[in-house]
Fold this protein.
Amino acid sequence: MPLLSPSPAAALKARYGEHYRWLLLMAVMVGTIASIIPSTSVNVAIPAMSAFFQLGQERAQWITSTFMVASTVAMLVTPWLLGRFGYRATYAWAIGLLMLGGISGGFAQHFELLLFSRVAEGLAAGIIQPIPAVIILYAFQPNEQGRAGGIFGMGVVLAPALAPALGGLLTDWMGWRSTFFMVVPPCLLSLWLAWKYVPSSAPGDSTSGEGSGKLDVLGLGLVSAGTLGVLNALVAFHHSHLKAALLAGMAAVCWLAFILWQQRLLRTQRKPLMDLRLFATRPFVMGCIVAFIYGTAMFGSTYLLPVFIQMGLGLSASYAGNLLLPAGLILAITIPWVGAWPTPSPPTGSPASACCCWPCLLD
């Protein structure tokens, strides 16, 4: 396939010149926007889907939860996929999976198939979303990375701002299935941009991430089981405190086993799924805390507010979607401004002295 054929970063840079890195950033930004759309656009249609499939809120919340769990787990696999299959192939296949998930969800006649489509979308989104951080690290100079991140962030946060508004209008006009098909046009554009600009090798002069070891399947299974255990514990808490405690205990055991296993892999010079040494660096930990708070607020509000506005207040899906628009627009204006601020360097000699984000896992 021409889309998946080898095209090294050096060859593309020679073809498009010095501005190639910005073209590459634009290409992956479109793909990231496509991957974020399903995380928020479908939320405004949850009351309509609940009525169609005759769901209570305990089952309906899995429409969002399955996407987030699959996305979280898939992010840990992205470095291995980039090293094993290359940037262009990984990105293109993930975009294809995202589009397939959206189409299958739009045609789903059973709730189980709808959940499988959300898992597919979540897996694709989890693979796609860390890739821009890798590209910004390798393709841009340190003094350009803040600006590149700001411009990229402005485009990306517009997706969760505009997607609910558009999803609400489509739900009122054409039904809840139309929200799943929203992802198809940006996915097609992303595939075309990937064919033109996304390289098969690491962008820039770095060769980091080329080649790969064996995938840590055990670690992946432990962290997946732990995450699912926590979510099921929260759901079970409303009915049985004992069941919730057992599920939470199982999740804690899985996470503890995951940490011990990752430490053992590091001691034996094998490649872990997650390099826990990064958490010894304070800037990285602070960034994780900020990302956790931001993610909780954004994804929690984009689920709870549309459901409450429609099912609690009896307003329309389009009203619920438009209510989320102002905050997203303000965020889109703020991010590029903050991205232009100078970034302090991490302490020398620390595991994240070169970077404190996903690309460190590739080293």
